[in-house]
Amino acid sequence: MLSARQYHMQTAYFRERMVPHTLDWENQPAVFKRYANLRAIQLPRVPAVFSLPLSELTARDHRGVVARSILRERMASILGLSCSLTARAHHAGNDFYYRSVASAGALFPNEIYLVQGQASDLTAGICHYAVDRQCLYALRPGSFGAYVRGAVHGLGGREPAAALLISAIFFRSAWKYRERAYRYVLLDGGHLLQNILLSIKALSLPLESTYDFDDFTANTLVGLDGRREALLACVAIPAAEESETRDAPPIGPLAEDVQAASRVARVEVAYEKIERIHKAGTAVRPVTGAAAMQERMGLSVKAWRSFDRSRPLADEGTYPEVLFRRRSRRNYVRRALPYARFERLLDMLWTARGVDDPAGRENQKLLCIGFLGADIEDVAPGIYLLDDAQRRFGMLTAGNFAKRMATVCLNQEWLAQAAVHFIFLTDLKQLDETFGARGYRYAMLSAGRFGQMIYLACTALGLGACGIGAFYDSEARQLIGLHADSALLYLVAAGSVKRL
Ligand SMILES: Cc1cc2nc3c(=O)[nH]c(=O)nc-3n(C[C@H](O)[C@H](O)[C@H](O)COP(=O)(O)O)c2cc1C
Is 192 a pocket residue for ligand 1 (Cβ < 6 Å)? Predict the structure, then answer.
């Protein structure tokens, strides 16, 4: 078993100790999961009908949204907006597809499963969502809401109308990143989770997201072994009415060929540290009253500056447009980021705290969010923290650190041109002490959620963004001024780019 701190420290990159790793292209993992003998349920092609600007969607208060039945079309929209193929490239004789979510190394380790209840024109059952075919593969027919109610924490003892479960196939990312890959599958999972939450919000359906469930029952339900592929997060859509409690059919193991679909490469290497940290995180520890991570990290800000919910900018994109246009951008130009845009970006990031869903509410206990401001109009260069409880930010250290941070990020020099680097920090020891090893899942998934929000907000505002998971860990810690137990988990660069 490993603690969060041990895993993170043991998978650190050191400048003088980088071991070259040649990718085995003959054994490249498949990015689409395939089942040999399962029935496909085609979903209707749903036009992207929302003309809502992204910032209006994110700002909308979602509390008290009334449950409605989840018709086939609505579920097709939720899935299509959560994860779609958005662009095609041609590499080494093969087509390659980009998606509406970012993913480290474009390895796309995450999958989506659906537990659909009775009250719908979709057949009740458990399905896998095939993103490339926009269809569902039926894994188990029947009503399994009672299992979700039993296994997933925080649903108030009610069966949801539907639940979307996010998994990770570890080898997809470990093929490239080896033991460090657990970081990426969690961050990527958070990116996907944020898209799912926004899509459900766009459809004005209520939601409850959580990282807490009984791993064994939930994995068995969708036919995963919990080692090669395992569930990471759940978004439940509460039912309009209390459903009558039925006896759920027993859940035995699924057929061997169904389980074998988690195998994505001819030769799969099992990475010991990934297995150990994931297994260590099996226990869910009830937590009440932990203080915000920012306070616990002992970082002190002298003066805070408030930011307002700024007025919409005339050229903001609509939510579906933004989703389908989102890409990673590295062509930054030295142009000051206008303060009005920066404020809008902060505001949209702020809304991703998810005060209206349970997993989101824990964010401030898990993460401390800050930014390295390099070239923001009317904001002196420096390292800043964002205050999660109030709309404000404050300086930790004065100076322009973008160039140094670019070097820390494995010499990705283009980062030096970005106007701002958002940073996601935590104290790993405190995370372990409060949440146990599962806290690592929480913190990384949450950081990924914010990362996706930054990408989308930047796309809406005509800016570029790029997530960065590759950095020399101790150099990053020193640059930001963190103590030995604290760490940078993720960085997302943002700013003006040559062209979008
Ligand atoms: C967790 C995470 C880490 C990433 N790390 C890096 C990085 O270190 N350097 C980089 O250039 N891109 C990085 N990216 C961007 C991915 O390479 C990019 O999302 C992927 O190639 C898909 O392309 P797209 O975002 O344009 O759709 C990262 C993305 C994520 C989500």
Answer: no
